[in-house]
Amino acid sequence: MIPTSSQLNRYEACRGAWNVERDIPPSPTTPDAASGTTIHAALDTGDTRSLDVDEQQTYQRCQEILMRCFPYEMLSKERRFFLVNPTGKTVLSGKADLIQLDEDSIHIIEFKTGRNAVPPPMENWQMLSLAVMAWEEYRPAWVHLAIIQPWVSFEPVTAVLTSHDVSQIKQQLFTLLSDIETSTQRTPSLDACRYCRAKATCPKAWGIVKSLETLPPAQWAVNLNTCELAQDIIDAVRAGAKTLMLAGAKVPGYEIVYEQRTTYRGGDLQMILNRGAFYGLNIGNFLPCCKLVAGDLRKTIAQSAYLKGAELTRAIATITDDLGETKTISKMQRA
Ligand code: SF4
């Protein structure tokens, strides 16, 4: 088992994490991670049939930025690279979403489909290590790195590396990899622990949860950061226990129960209306059973009328004028 590029930033933040978590099975996939995988698969194959409305929009935004900014020859998609150290040992693997060729340059392009910005290419070990591994194979004069994150910006975040830059980064990368292979030092932080498979049982991570007892209540920013990490750790304990129970283990006082929730969407609604006519269902008594979420209407009009920004807002205001029920809720999020 070897580390992968996408984990390197958090291993840099906690050098001992690789050794702790390497033998722990992966945590259950979160809905956000599953959605990201689905969108990446569609970007790879062009088949969008499995995407929901929100994922369709993310897909289209990614494609729009790609077409506008990267009109180069496609070299490979979803290509996995491996890095071999000077002693001949394979020490890292990493998969690039897209590799494009432009004369004596290659472009490494990564899609990030989440709502939060990821570190820019020069601070992002996933991008830097992909640059090293792709350069080893293609030996271009220039390596262009680009992150397309359509919910953060309509412009890609880019960086350009010369062969000399890549060679320096390669040395730093070997140092980092050798460090994380041998280190036992655990350094908890939100960035390091959030996706660490060891967080449910790591004493250092639990130390952060316990520190909530002694933090001065008025230190809101520190407390909120700590709460966020504490919540992640608690979620990991729940997910770990559930995985064990699904595999047949007994946890005293708890059991797995199954409940079904059915939602009817799109074409289902028309079919139900047609079939229900025999039982007296008509548009007048059927519509009150249906709910339309404002965000879904906005996405649908954006796609059907090719509108965005202020124009889209005006169209929605015209359509929904004085209709609907609007509640104002306050929520706290990271600035
Ligand atoms: S839980 Fe946090 S502190 Fe513990 S090994 Fe993982 S990243 Fe390091």
Major sheet summary line: 5 strands, mixed
Show unreliable segments: none
Oligomer: single chain
SSE topology string: HHHHEEEHEEHHHHHHHH
Broad structural category? alpha+beta
Number of helices: 13
Shape: globular
Name the strands of the widest sheet in spatial order. Answer: 1-2-3-4-5
Task: Tell me what the structure shows.
- Helix 8 (203-211) packs across helix 9.
- Helices cover 47% and strands 13% of the residues.
- It has a 5-stranded mixed sheet with strand order 1-2-3-4-5, with helices on both faces.
- The model has no long low-confidence stretch (mean pLDDT 90).
- The protein is built from 13 helices and 5 strands.
- Helix 5 links the parallel strand 3 and strand 4 (142-148).
- The longest helix is centred in the last third of the chain and has 27 residues, at 220-246.
- It has helices spanning 8-13, 17-21, 31-45, 53-69, 125-138, 163-182, 190-193, 203-211, 220-246, 266-276, 283-286, 294-305, 309-320; strands at residues 73-84, 90-102, 105-111, 142-148, 157-162.
- It is globular.
- With 335 residues, it is an alpha+beta fold.
Put the structure in a nutshell.
With 335 residues, the protein is of the alpha+beta class.
Characteristics of this structure?
alpha+beta, 5 strands, 47% helix, 13% strand, globular, binds iron/sulfur cluster
